Amino acid sequence: MRAVRLLLFVVGAAATAYGGWLLLPQFDTALPWLIGGPVLHDVLVAPLVGLVGLVLGRLVTNRLRRAWITAGLLASATLLLIAVPLLWRPPSAPANPGLPDRDYPLGLTVGLAVLWAAIVIVLVAATTVDRRVASRRTDSQ
Amino acid sequence: MIRRLRIPAPEDFTAPSHSPQVTARLGLWLGVAFGLCFATGVLSHYIQHPPGWFTWPTRPVSLYRITQGVHVLSGVAAIPLLLAKLWSVYPRLFVRPPVRQPIRLSAHALERISVLVLVCAAFFELVTGLFNVAQSYPWGFFFPTAHYAVAWLVAGAILLHVAVKLPIARAALSTPLRRRRAVPGADDPNSSERRAFLRTSAGVAGIAVLATAGVTVPWLRRVSPLAWRSASGPQGVPINRTAAAARITVPPDWRLEIVWPGGRETLSLAELVALPHRTAELPIACVEGWSVSANWTGVPVVELLRWAGAPTGRPVRITSLETDGLYAASTLPAAHARDPLTLLALRINGEQLSPDHGYPCRLIAPSRPGVLQTKWVARLEVLR
């Protein structure tokens, strides 16, 4: 294990140094885009996720229901993130007549609608099954 | 009860999603996604800037379509996995440095720096890659070189991170998620929440892939709502660069020029049309991950060289009428130049090439990035 870790360390340090050397000529313009991700995540995204989680924990007490709603929220957030460059095209992008060639807002709306419809169906089905199991238990007693 | 606001400590985070068992598994999955993304990305870089030792096969004809599809889709899958992984280790951000122990403090600082490099570089790659597939460049750097350089930062920082975390990760991975217990009964709630978090992360990664895979997987075209490119366009194939954008005017006396060491030949469009043709189904596979197949008809480059009396089996430089721009010329490696499916295409899906598709003729070769399929060809030069 020691040898493996040492090897990983040496190769990792070499690859990092190579990447840094390759990036050097563009380092100044790339820096804001390098730092931006972790700063936005640690200061804004993660606390927000924690807050939503706390609120959701108070509002929805059923564990199964909470798990599916959490999954729906995380999937929606991911789809929204992926859609950002398709929905928001800053003017600095060079004009390209070939793109965009699809209706992205419509696609995103339909995708989110399908996702939440699926979650509602799952939750309704799960609740129905739960009720039946519960009523069978009371019947047999 | 009002508690005073303070910076949280790692112990304040009690959710099961922060357990090392979850972190290590997410790390493993993310490692696979980033590993695939890095390997296919380096391949794509080498195909476009081949070092002397590098060769790339011409079969299967969709090979580049597959590797570049894997590149963009593994990157898309990495987005929710990275966020889940960061959520899992978020409490570690608040670990207080061991200020009174200089040796432990320096180790702590080095680890933090390596993790910072990893997170910066990972976000950079995913964000710039995502903007590139939408062909949007809201930054000052040149995307291909910066994306390639930072890929090495990600790869190196991941290896460093694994080197540091290997003992913890191994222990966590060998601990089963579902504890076997002597007493039957209700499941341990923490264990089931850990599994739920992992299932959700994997499921969301799957949804993200499904939502975008239509750019390259034909039967998903109608399913993927966020596929950035449709399969439609003039003559059935999308266009990245139009003739107007490339400022192309085809001179009325256009002649194709073939040059080789010690010889030169030219031919008019009529003469080119009169040569024996071949039709092949080949994909245009873009570096942005989208790909579409079409039926191309034209003169095989190897036959054209034979007709001209030029040597074959050597690399061929293809130059466009386009005077500037990065992709005004490309070099066919010897393997592609001698492949009978490498065409100087005159027709697409049974119609004459439109100006935007490269009229009067364009290169189409198997298993190559779309940017190297030079349009508006003016000159073939057989290299030594």
Automatic annotation (TrEMBL), chain A:
This is Uncharacterized protein. Keywords: Membrane, Transmembrane, Transmembrane helix. The chain crosses the membrane at residues 43-60, 67-88, 108-129. The keyword Transmembrane helix applies.
UniProtKB/TrEMBL annotation, chain B:
Keywords: Membrane, Transmembrane, Transmembrane helix. CDD domains: SO_family_Moco. The chain crosses the membrane at residues 26-48, 68-88, 109-131, 151-173, 202-220. Pfam families: Oxidored_molyb. Residues 251-383 form the Oxidoreductase molybdopterin-binding domain. It comes from the Bacteria. This is Molybdopterin-dependent oxidoreductase. It comes from Micromonospora trifolii.
